[in-house]
Amino acid sequence: MNKPGGPTAAAAAAAAQKQKNLLQRADTEISNLLENFGLMVNVARVNDPPVRNSQESFMMEMRAAKMVQAADSLLKLVSELKQTAIFSNFASLNEHVEQCTIEFNLLAEKTNRMLAEIGEEAAASLKELESHYYSSMQRTIQSES
Questions:
Q1: What does 65-77 look like in DSSP terms, one character per residue?
Q2: What does the radius of gyration of the chain's CA atoms come to, in whole angstroms?
Q3: 32 exposed, middle or buried (CB, 10 Å; 0-12, 13-18, 19+)?
Q4: Residue percentage of the chain with pLDDT more than 90
Q5: What is the DSSP letter of 46?
Q6: H-helix segments, 1-145
Q7: What InterPro entries does the annotation carry (predicted)?
Q8: How far, in Å, CA of 15 to CA of 17, rounded?
Q9: What is the pTM for the complete model shown?
Q10: Are 11 and 93 in contact (CB under 8 A)?
Q11: Do 8 and 2 form a contact (C-beta atoms < 8 A)?
């Protein structure tokens, strides 16, 4: 049987921490994507001075590159989530733990019944032996001497 701090508890804690980390990564990458898109739209104004346009063009390229990086990171995150779902099917793990718990509880009940029967048989045997002892000739001979 697993103890409260056993492998199942450790696996559940690790899974919860991993899920928390994945959600934080997803939030961060989506925020980066939205921020870069917003900044790219703000820079996309057309101005008269050619120098200003080239600066804005460079900034747009830089923001577009950051958006591509954020999107790539999100794709990797989705891949990691798929792998986690495939290799760490927590529903089946929980089901297995519940099934083992039920089996162990049934085994404990069976053991308790068996011990109760053994105790009753031992008490009956002891009572029978006592009655034989107290009514035996050996005891009566010893008490007369």
A1: HHHHHHHHHHHHH
A2: 38
A3: middle
A4: 19
A5: -
A6: 7-43, 50-87, 90-135, 137-144
A7: Med22
A8: 5
A9: 0.47
A10: yes
A11: yes
